[in-house]
């Protein structure tokens, strides 16, 4: 099969590194352009772990140079910086998968929770790349907004039940993430002495992923129930566990509904016991377990925040945008024990 050349902006970050690893083993994509920011100290080389494996030079990001050697760009950048690059890259004819939040939300919601949006024209046409729920549109897209990690883990579990949720009730989501979810820059919360042997909530009921989950529950599931989201940080490098509680309109056979919804989906596993982070860490899998008592349903999901919550989902979207099977080249084997 003919190779497709792709590039990454933000190679020095956590999701950028995960993208490189997936692309090095991908049967069709070839990594042809790597860029970091001007401040990247080791601009001439990639992460030390890639020594002897990948010799791609690291450039200061330049969209025109990227256009000369690539068809598609992954943006593994902070929000705001991502839309500056995406706007230019799209104008030059590149396809873009943006891992940041810049193209995920409707403009007023984005501006309420992030910053002024400088590329509303492209925002209107961006496809929200929750792969199992959006394949048809992603196939035709030039710009895919890769979903956030908490929204991915939450929505994949809750969406199959959206039609059965009592709109008078709230959707409660208790979520836990490893510290790589915050990126590579050190902060008080992710400092070793703070997070080691510790566990705490942050941004309760005010995290930016709450409106993302609510907006997409409405978009894909026509579910208008309010979302109440409490994220926690746990002393793990990677992985994410969600406990969602929903009140149903009437008792249902939740497991059958879940199995029917994801029939034939290679990277969704319906479990018969509560899910575990280590079963999915290092993979694109989303594991789901459900338990019900009358009209109360508990939905339990696990993903790798850096992969299904970011880089492997981005590659799945790129696969679709380039006319490939979305599951091509995605990591399957977990980092156990
Ligand atoms: N981590 C996750 O689990 C996760 C999950 C889903 C989505 N995301 C999103 O994915 C994006 C990347 O996340 P990450 O965790 O990989 O972050 P990260 O580890 O902090 O890496 C960010 C990258 O962006 C570069 N960068 C920062 N400021 C820049 C600027 N002004 N101009 C050019 N490059 C700049 C950094 O370069 P330097 O090395 O020079 O600073 C670095 O390569 C973020 O928008 C994040 O919200 C992350």
SSE sequence, one letter per element: EHEEHEHEHHEHEHEHEHEEHEEEH
Bulk shape:
globular
How far apart are the termini? 36 Å
Number of strands: 14
Number of domain units? 2
CATH homology superfamily of the largest domain: Dihydrodipicolinate Reductase, domain 2
Can you walk through the features of this model?
This protein is an alpha/beta fold and 337 residues long. It has two domains: 4-125, 3-Layer(aba) Sandwich (Rossmann fold); 150-304, Dihydrodipicolinate Reductase, domain 2. It is 30% helix and 22% strand. It contains eleven helices and 14 strands. It has helices at 14-24, 63-69, 81-91, 107-113, 120-125, 131-140, 149-158, 192-195, 209-221, 254-261, 307-321, and strands spanning 4-9, 29-36, 58-60, 72-75, 95-98, 127-128, 143-145, 171-177, 200-201, 227-233, 240-247, 268-270, 286-293, 296-303. It has a seven-stranded parallel β-sheet with strand order 3-2-1-4-5-7-6, with helices on both faces. It has a seven-stranded mixed β-sheet with strand order 9-10-8-11-14-13-12. Helix 1 (14-24) packs across helix 11 (307-321) and helix 7 packs parallel to helix 9. The mean pLDDT is 96. The structure holds NADP nicotinamide-adenine-dinucleotide phosphate. NADP nicotinamide-adenine-dinucleotide phosphate binds next to helix 1 and helix 11.
What is the fold's blueprint, element by element?
Elements: E1 4-9, H1 14-24, E2 29-36, E3 58-60, H2 63-69, E4 72-75, H3 81-91, E5 95-98, H4 107-113, H5 120-125, E6 127-128, H6 131-140, E7 143-145, H7 149-158, E8 171-177, H8 192-195, E9 200-201, H9 209-221, E10 227-233, E11 240-247, H10 254-261, E12 268-270, E13 286-293, E14 296-303, H11 307-321
Parallel strand pairs: 1-2, 1-4, 2-3, 4-5, 5-7, 6-7, 8-10, 12-13
Antiparallel strand pairs: 8-11, 9-10, 11-14, 13-14
Helix pairs in contact: 1-11, 6-11, 7-9
The structure holds NADP nicotinamide-adenine-dinucleotide phosphate.
NADP nicotinamide-adenine-dinucleotide phosphate is lined by residues 10, 12-16, 36-37, 39-40, 61, 76-79, 81, 99-100, 148-149, 180-181, 183-185, 305-306, 309-310.
